[in-house]
Amino acid sequence: MWETQRLVVANVTVADAGDYAVAFGDRESARFLGSPDPGDAVEWASQIARWTAGAPKGSTDEWLNFSVRLQEFGRPLVGRLQATVHGFWAEVAWVFSSAQWRRGYATEAGRWLVAHLADRGIDTIVASVDPGNRASVGLLNRIGFSLTEIPGLVPDSYDSGDLVFALRANIQRGGQ
Ligand SMILES: CC(C)(COP(=O)(O)OP(=O)(O)OC[C@H]1O[C@@H](n2cnc3c(N)ncnc32)[C@H](O)[C@@H]1OP(=O)(O)O)[C@@H](O)C(=O)NCCC(=O)NCCS
C-alpha cells in the first residue's frame, strides 16, 4: 500500500469488486474504454481475478492493477490505475469515477504511477488515447507526457487513429 497527499494506492484484490461496481458503473466513465466495464460486482470479481492471475503463460509482460482510494474515513474508491510492463517500457491507463472528476485525483495518482514505474527501473511510459478524449489528453499533458508522432513503442491498447503519448520516466524524476 502506498500513500500520496490525499490518496491511498493498493494492488487490486477481488475484495474490491463491490466498490468497483459502484464507482465504475456509469457509462460516462467507460465511454472511451476499448471494452465496456463489467456491470456488477460478480462480473467485476471475475475481471479482477483475471487481472491478478497475470499475463498469459509464455508472455514476459507484467500486469499491474491498482485501486485508488481517498485517505478519508471509509476509504472510498475513486479510481483505478493499470500498467502493462513490457521489459524496459510500460503502457498505462486510468479510470476515475465520474462523481470524482476534476478534483486532481487522477493527476495525483498518475504522478504516483510514473514515480512507481521509474522506481521499478522502467525507462519509458506510453499511453494511447482516443483523440476525442479531452480529459485524458489534458491529464497526460499535465503529468508531463508528450505526443509522439511516430511511436517506436506501440501499446497493446493502441487502436487505429489513437494519439500516442510518451514520457521518459527517469527524466521526469530528475534523472535519478
Ligand atoms: C481522464 C480522467 C482519468 C481524468 O480524471 P480527473 O480526476 O478528473 O483528472 P484531474 O482532476 O486530475 O484533471 C487533470 C487534467 O485533466 C484534464 N481534464 C480533466 N477532465 C477534463 C474535461 N472534462 N475536459 C477537459 N479536460 C479535462 C485537465 O487538463 C485537468 O487539469 P485542470 O483541472 O488543471 O484543467 C477521467 O476523466 C476519466 O476517468 N475518464 C474516463 C476514463 C478514460 O477515458 N480513461 C482514459 C483511458 S486511458
Summarize this, please?
This protein is of the alpha+beta class and 176 residues long. It has 6 helices and 8 strands; from the N terminus they run ββαααβββαβαββα.
Question: Any idea of the CATH class?
Answer: Alpha Beta
Structural class: alpha+beta
Q: Which fold does the CATH topology refer to?
A: Aminopeptidase
Return residue spans where pLDDT drops below 50 for at least 5 consecutive residues. Answer: none
- Strands of the widest sheet, in order across it, are 1-2-3-4-5-6-8-7
How would you state the average pLDDT, rounded? 91
> How many helical elements?
6
Query: Mind telling me the CATH superfamily name?
Result: Gcn5-related N-acetyltransferase (GNAT)
Q: How would you sum up the major sheet?
A: 8 strands, mixed
Shape: globular
Using only CA atoms, what is the Rg?
15 Å
Q: How helical, in percent, are the residues? A: 25-40%
Number of domains: 1
Instruction: List cofactors, ions and other ligands.
Output: coenzyme A
H-E string: EEHHHEEEHEHEEH
Strand tally is: 8
Q: Could you tell me how far the N terminus lies from the C terminus, measured between alpha carbons in angstroms?
A: 23 Å
Bin the strand percentage: 25-35%
What does this structure look like?
- The chain has 176 residues and is of the alpha+beta class.
- The chain has one domain: Aminopeptidase (3-Layer(aba) Sandwich), CATH 3.40.630.
- Helix content is 30%, strand content 27%.
- It contains six helices and eight strands; from the N terminus they run ββαααβββαβαββα.
- The protein has helices at residues 17-23, 27-30, 41-53, 105-119, 134-143, 169-172, and strands at residues 2-3, 7-11, 62-70, 77-86, 89-96, 124-129, 146-147, 163-168.
- Strands 1-2-3-4-5-6-8-7 form an eight-stranded mixed β-sheet, with helices on both faces.
- Strand 4 (77-86) and strand 5 (89-96) form a beta hairpin.
- Helix 4 packs across helix 5.
- It starts with a strand and ends with a helix.
- Bound molecules: coenzyme A.
- Coenzyme A (COA) binds next to strand 5, helix 4 and helix 5.
